[in-house]
């Protein structure tokens, strides 16, 4: 019932590995059009949480709903992806020997795959979508570059673009700022904010400068559940958060 108006609804989610609780009654609600930053020390359960959302890991207990009433616990990874949940891992996995444009076109072809693309005459509408994505990911001028020649940050943006080509409703992004220059990090915050105007975004991040730039609600995970939630200023002032970060 509470889940009805939410895009993503996790309630009481627990996951154990050999008796160790990686997630311990985790609850998280993401509204349509919301961007949320997830922080927390190593081992807090951030990756496991993403794995539960994408169906890679099945919870032992708890509810996981998407778009109100879709029960993700009953679905496999491919079906969950096709609902419109896109995940970007930390390490970019672009096709290095293809151009920026071709990478986006391949992503647009989606499950039809590279082979089908050979026989596919792209439509004007598809070209316009690729153009729009190029603008969003700041790579319009580099459309003909081989992906191999992009900087680390630009590869991350291209991969975000490849996810956008699949028109997700929810984008899960794992440490986008890792390994980026300061300028790229600042630009990534702006870029994600633009994307979040039309999609929900969940960002797992360690870089607090970047989290500050995002300027969104922050959820602090610790030992598999939510320790604190609110603005970055609010959670930074929370004594429990201070203890977890400084007490180690
Ligand atoms: P984070 O991403 O916040 O660093 P993780 O979700 O990766 O945290 O891990 C949470 C805890 O669960 C860690 O203590 C980790 O060692 C453990 N863990 C994660 N995945 C597995 C697994 N497949 N098998 C055993 N333990 C795991």
From TrEMBL:
Q: Name one GO molecular function term.
A: ATP hydrolysis activity
For this UniProt record, the keywords arranged alphabetically read as follows: ATP-binding, Nucleotide-binding, Transport
Report domain ABC transporter positions: 8-248
Q: Name one Pfam family in it.
A: ABC_tran
Superkingdom of the source species: Bacteria
GO cellular component assignments: plasma membrane
Q: Which InterPro entries match?
A: AAA+_ATPase (IPR003593), ABC_AA/LPS_Transport (IPR051120), ABC_transporter-like_ATP-bd (IPR003439), ABC_transptr_urea_ATP-bd_UrtD (IPR017781), BCA_ABC_TP_C (IPR032823), P-loop_NTPase (IPR027417)
Q: Does the keyword Transmembrane helix apply?
A: no
Q: Which SMART domains match?
A: AAA
What is the name attached to this protein's record?
A: Urea transport system ATP-binding protein
Report the source organism.
Prosthecomicrobium pneumaticum
């Amino acid at each position: 019932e509470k889940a009805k108006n939410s895009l993503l609804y996790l309630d009481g989610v627990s996951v154990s590995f050999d008796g160790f609780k990686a997630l311990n009654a985790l609850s998280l609600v993401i509204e349509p059009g919301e961007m949320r930053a997830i922080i927390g020390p190593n081992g807090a359960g951030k990756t496991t949480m993403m794995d539960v959302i994408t169906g890679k890991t099945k919870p032992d207990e708890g509810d996981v709903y998407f778009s109100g009433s879709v029960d993700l616990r009953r679905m496999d990874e491919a079906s969950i992806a096709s609902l419109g949940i896109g995940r970007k891992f930390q390490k970019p996995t672009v096709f290095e020997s293809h151009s920026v444009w071709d990478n986006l076109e391949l992503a647009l072809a989606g499950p039809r795959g590279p082979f089908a693309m050979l026989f596919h005459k792209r439509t004007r509408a598809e070209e316009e979508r690729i153009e729009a994505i190029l603008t969003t990911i700041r790579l319009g001028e580099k459309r003909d570059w081989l992906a191999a020649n992009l900087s680390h940050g630009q590869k991350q943006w291209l991969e975000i673009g490849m996810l956008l080509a699949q028109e997700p409703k929810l984008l899960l992004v794992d440490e986008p700022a890792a390994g980026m220059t300061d300028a790229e990090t600042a630009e990534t915050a702006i870029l994600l904010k633009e994307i979040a105007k039309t999609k929900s975004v969940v960002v797992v991040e360690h870089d607090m400068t970047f989290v500050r730039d995002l300027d969104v609600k922050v959820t602090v995970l610790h030992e598999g559940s939510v320790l604190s939630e609110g603005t970055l200023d609010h959670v930074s002032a929370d004594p429990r958060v201070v203890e977890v970060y400084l007490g180690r």
